[in-house]
């Protein structure tokens, strides 16, 4: 009995020592960086040069697209080394130095916490939260493998991956020649096993880093999820998977760890983004979507999903501010009590991606909006149900579902777009992706702006500022350009809602690319659209409804569906009778003084008759045609087109003549 009592006393004593020396991971935030904010941002200062030297040339070039010459900000300045030295004097090891947050992360005991909190340069100490992710579902046999049907319309054989990519028109953009060339994509996940899988073995991975263990080994845990994500954005093995950005370069960061579930410590994610910024990453894709914290942690509330509260959201937004296109899964909480998107998908500029099935129906698990402050989320959706992907640790493939499978598809499309137009800023990319989705006219908090189309993104007009001038160009691609008649393509634009539209001729190159230079004053409101003639002499309009809008000096173009389609109040009626065998009548409604021309063409596009050419002197012009051509000969039976040209508007309709 005496021996048992001694054992119990010893156990209690050891437990008390353990409790007294229990430690946790914390952020230590500093009040300042120990330097004057204004003077240190002078380009000749040592701290400025130190911040600049921490960035690659590629990073600086990307930053300058967004920030101009002032591409170094106060957040980029290094943390005061004396502050770090004072912290380390307490026998503390610094894990991450997070200059954007002006903080360090470290593991400290309660006693060390008390000592460090006394420093006057320490603003606050907060626990590094450990978050859990509602995992995606990835299996090899849950879904029946699609038969390997080769689509002869496409350049590549997509195998079973065709469904997920065809849904967003990715093969069409591959046909056109864009697969991520020149773009550096960063993937943050829980590990990667890519060197032996046939779809990934030849990837151009320029950098790897493990922020969990502090090394470069990304394959020392469960790399299944990261490998699947990598293959969905960059995999290439014909007959199996041909991902959107298979020709991009990649940087891989391990920021999460998996044992029984996916966990993330917030400092690892923030450190990963700072690293990716420094090496010049253009686009990041992340599968974060955290709402639950580890046991004993205080969870975030929906009220924290306001774009400004969580550490991971702050880090994502700071990366975006430096020119990175940040893309994140919306989360898999649609079926849970939470249901809403979560950090960092709540960021103001972070592009959150929801999931749909192959029939475009929203996946039941896909997290929805709005953010707590009422913003529409997610931004876009892509296929995230039954996505075909590479399996780690084998040469095989499987199917998986989750928003972290739709996010890399969207990121791949962003890379295709940037590859086509390297001058685009991340803000332009974000807006184009939203405008190129199928609910852009009427977004909601389930699909956001809708199902993303790579083709629509590539064809959406964009702005390029011309160096050393006060002008800019509106650039556009028309993929299906073979039916556009030579010299028939025009840009029409008006300034400050003036009804007098200026017509500018556009020259297509052999690939369907063209640009128009426009000079205007700063802050001018410009509305514009395009018109061209097809091979049937029918004039087509882009967009079919509404106008494109921009403000001179800004880089964004929006599409307003409610703006009037035409400049001239004119209407062309259907001929009557139709079909006819002797005479038919055509009515034209227009304002008095409108310059009108009405001509008739046969099905070969040859003009057979000019019915009217001149200035209208009445509101309703009535014209009759007796099936005679300009020479007075009777025309043959068949289909004819009659075309109205009113000032710069062109309208055409069909009629049938039967002898």
What this model shows, in words?
This protein has 659 residues and is an alpha+beta fold. The protein has four domains: 22-128, Alpha-Beta Plaits (2-Layer Sandwich); 133-458, Rossmann fold; 461-560, Immunoglobulin-like (Sandwich); 570-657, Macroglobulin (MG2) domain (Immunoglobulin-like). Helix content is 21%, strand content 29%. The chain contains 14 helices and 36 strands. The strands form nine sheets. Strands 8-11-7-14-16-17-18 form a seven-stranded parallel beta sheet, sandwiched between helices. It is elongated and about 105 Å long. The chain starts with a helix and ends with a strand. Residues 6-20 and 139-144 have low confidence and may be disordered.
Write the layout of secondary structure elements.
Elements: H1 2-20, E1 23-30, H2 37-40, H3 46-53, H4 57-67, H5 81-88, E2 94-98, E3 103-109, H6 110-116, E4 122-127, E5 130-133, E6 137-139, H7 162-166, H8 170-176, E7 184-189, E8 204-210, H9 224-234, E9 236-237, E10 241-242, E11 249-254, E12 256-258, E13 262-265, H10 266-279, E14 283-286, E15 292-293, H11 311-321, E16 325-329, E17 351-356, E18 380-383, E19 387-390, E20 397-401, H12 403-420, H13 426-435, H14 454-459, E21 462-465, E22 471-477, E23 490-495, E24 502-505, E25 513-519, E26 525-533, E27 539-542, E28 547-551, E29 558-560, E30 570-572, E31 584-590, E32 595-602, E33 607-615, E34 620-625, E35 638-646, E36 649-657
Parallel strand pairs: 7-11, 7-14, 8-11, 14-16, 16-17, 17-18
Antiparallel strand pairs: 1-3, 1-4, 2-3, 5-13, 5-15, 6-20, 9-10, 12-13, 19-20, 21-22, 22-25, 23-24, 23-26, 26-27, 26-28, 28-29, 30-31, 31-34, 32-33, 32-35, 35-36
